[in-house]
Task: structure prediction
Amino acid sequence: MNTSLGLTGAAVALGIGLLIGLERERHKGRGDSRTCAGLRTFAITALLGYVAMQVGGSLLLGVMAICVALLVTVVYWRSLNSDPGVTSEVALLTVLLLGAMCGTAPELAIAIGVVVAGLLAYRQKLHHFARSQLSEAEMRDGLVLLIAALVVLPLAPDRYIGPYAAINLRTICTLTVLLMTVGAIGHIAVRTLGRRYGYVISAIASGFASSTVTIASMGHIAATEPDNVKVLGAAALFSNLATVTQVGLILGTVDIGLLRPMWWPLLGGATATALYGLCLMFPRPARGANQPIKVGGAFNLKLALIVTLAMTGITFLSSAMLDRFGEVGVMVTATLSGFADAHSSTASIASLAKSGQLPFDAIAGPMLIAISSNSLSKCLVAWISGGHRFAAYVIPGQILLTLAMWAGTWAQ
Result:
């Protein structure tokens, strides 16, 4: 059994060395200008790391690493005039350590080895992307997003504070990061697919996180790109498809029977949204709709903060009203909470029905009131973020969506 495991680890180490060594062999050059290591050197180094770890443990591996480091240092200084890069030298040390990992974590070693080989193979494309494609503004926005998501968000306390316990710093940070991410996703999609389809695809995808935030993001872009306001209006409305789908998923997750009274409203809302959005997109695209986006920032941090604070204010107002007037019915609660988020209203109504406090057949009214108030909130966001031209395309679509869902209830 131990022999089998040992042979497996050695085979994995050899495979990693051959994979990375093969890539280096193709780029090592010829004659006096060739680099220090190729196929055989990388394969032997990977096996050396594996054997050192198995025979002498971490101590022997450290000694071997020092020896290899000294060798590559000598080679680097000898080739400094012709090849000042250290990629092959660093890759050789990486292969040594990956070979040592094959005895304890072969799967992780394989994954890292494949990633290293990919980074080496796509060197020119990565250099071209960093130097020619990625702008200074995009680099700055990417760093801001990473800092907000990986540093600020984990440190934000996840508890309710302030009057009526309506303010949650974790929620505020999450919404801000979400809006920045929506903008970044849309920016990438548009640069890849062009404005006409990139905005729509990114809006549908980001709508699963927040359709209201997506509409605000599209509105901000419409204010800076007035020629594409029609396509951006279509994209904003298509984000409602994610909302309708998510409502159905929430209801089906709580209890599949909850979908029965909401089947026709959801289907009607999705159909009306899709037809209206397609009418905005076709047959005549906006001028320049298929052209790549101009290089610029990936998102607008100021807009993210404004929308987040506005949604927090709505939540605070809703909590204050409910605290002052008490529970006057599920309808009022759904209306107030729907201004901020239709998903939370859906979850609360579904929970009431599941617990027996509300009949299954009675959920359609509160659900549609929540969705209607959420549509009103989206109309206000569209007007504020994108101006009257953008709102002129979005508001009729939101009204059509709401009416179609109510009509679905009456038809059922």
